[in-house]
Amino acid sequence: MVKKPKAIFLDMDGTILNHYNKVSIYTKQIIDEIRNRGIYVFIATGRAVDEINELVPDGFQVDGIISSNGMAGYVGEKAIFEHSLSIELVDKIIKKAREHRVYYELFPYGADRISLKQDRQYIVDEIREPKPESVGLNEWLSRQQAIKEAIDWKDQIEGNKFSKFYFFARTEEHINGWKNELEKIKQDIDFTTSISSSHNVEVMVANMNKGTGIKEMLQYFNLSDVETMAIGDSNNDLPMFQFVDYAVAMKNASDEIQEIVDEVTEYTCDEEGVYHYLKSTIVLDSEINA
Q1: What is the DSSP string of 171-239?
Q2: Is 87-205 a CATH 3.40.50.300 domain?
Q3: Three-state secondary-structure class, residue 157
Q4: Domain 7-83+209-288 has CATH 3.20.20.70
Q5: 77-111, pLDDT tens digit by residue?
Q6: For burial by CB atoms within 10 Å, which of 17, 75, 166, 179 has the most?
């Protein structure tokens, strides 16, 4: 394995976030300790950058954030790169989502996520209780929070810079049907799709993903792409797993994900898996070999 990576990239949901969508103080402490040793630590998440502060402890710091599955990168308050969906694609997809009654959130840069008022009834209905058994608790809680306070319900789409679409469905049949519709739209306007659970799909600019985001972030810091590590748990982490030198999957990742990585953590995201992994493989190993 990479005994002392120069840069570590951490997914959020299912990785440093537990299933109640919180990053623990222990994870913050191990990140601080690793950064004090001269190793860069970055977040690489499907979430928009504006979502992160409410999920992490006070004083949480990393060297940079790759958000929206590689669509944007930030160092502090500075945007290093921001790729945007075209308004043509945005309009086309929303019309199709309405036809198929698919829950959607559109993420503009620098503003609250958007759903249109005319679609509110069926969107809210997708989050009705009880929670479907196959939907993960963290995703369900995020959708409930979005409905209550995060979505800006608009009469029409405003702005012209958008990082991604997020789509959700109560049933796998519904979301799989929507994925097929997206493939049809892709024949006219190219874009990239990404999934992080069996109930969602996201849309980004063509050929953008966590791997391309990592490449752009490394270039900004003048870092080589060697001696890099990534920790994640789901399909949207595959591009970063393929890009870095050493890929680590969470114990709570699917069997398919665990089979293609270099190592699997001993503990899940609810058992401080990232903390224990980084403590044992980076911090303690460095002290033993000092």
Answers
A1: SHHHHHHHHHHHHHHHTTS-EEEE-SSTTEEEEEETT-SHHHHHHHHHHHTT--SSSEEEEE-SGGGHH
A2: no
A3: coil
A4: no
A5: 999 999 999 999 999 999 999 999 999 999 999 99
A6: 17
